[in-house]
Specification:
CATH architecture: 3-Layer(aba) Sandwich
Strand order of the largest sheet: 5-4-3-6-7-8-9
Strand content: 25-35%
Shape: globular
Structural class: alpha/beta
Number of helices: 6
Radius of gyration: 16 Å
CATH class: Alpha Beta
Oligomer: single chain
Number of domains: 1
Length: 203
């Protein structure tokens, strides 16, 4: 059990194999305590998802780090995030990327994320309220991360990915979900299974 941000990163992230120095630095710079609900502050560094509002959750620290590591984000990357939540993953991505566009369907979470992200000085985040899985974008993105479980492979979202880009998305597989890293190679998806996960549904 971690009682500090440093312990959380050392025990839950580095010790479990996510040791990319850029990801580790981002996890240390973006404090999870700033993105949990007030009643859960004492559990902010625990290895567990936590409830937000309207039935949504903030993912456990390890999953946030794993998904970020799988995306392989750098300062040249434009990133699309579907599901802003409380803004925690958004901030991690913004710390690493050139820019982040994050879409949140629920007004309550959209407002919460805006409030939480004000604690940081990011100027490379654009928050949009809307149905991200069906939204059309003028630009294509180097990276796409989906923070809710799709019923099937989200082909429409995949169309927004640049050639050679990477998408990380959990997909329903019967009674469980699989987290996939998907590369766009010659316009087609190339799948790599990462692990089993549990996310709220992508609706």
């Amino acid at each position: 059990m971690a009682y500090s941000l440093k312990e959380m990163v050392e025990n839950q992230i580095i010790a479990r194999g996510v040791n990319n120095p850029d990801v580790v630095e981002a996890m240390l710079k973006i404090d999870r305590v700033d993105f949990v609900m007030p009643e859960d502050i004492n559990f902010a560094y625990h290895d567990t998802p936590l409830s937000l509002i309207d039935g949504q959750t903030i993912s456990q620290p390890y999953i946030v780090a794993l998904m970020t590591d799988a995306l392989n984000v750098d300062k040249e990357c434009s990133v699309l995030e579907i599901g802003t939540g409380s803004g925690y993953q958004t901030a991690i991505l913004a710390y690493l990327a050139k820019n982040v566009v994050s879409v949140e369907r629920l007004e309550s979470l959209f407002n919460l994320a805006n409030k939480n992200l004000e604690k940081y000085s990011f100027e490379n985040i654009k928050l949009i309220r809307g149905d991200g899985k069906n939204m059309e974008f003028k630009e294509k993105f180097d990276r796409i991360e989906v923070t809710a479980a799709a019923e099937t492979f989200p082909e429409k979202l995949f169309e927004n990915l640049k050639e050679g880009g990477t998408m990380v998305v959990p997909v329903e597989q019967g009674f469980y979900q699989v987290l996939y890293k998907i590369r766009k190679i010659k316009g087609k998806p190339e799948f790599r299974q990462l692990c089993h996960v549990r996310f709220v549904p992508l609706v």
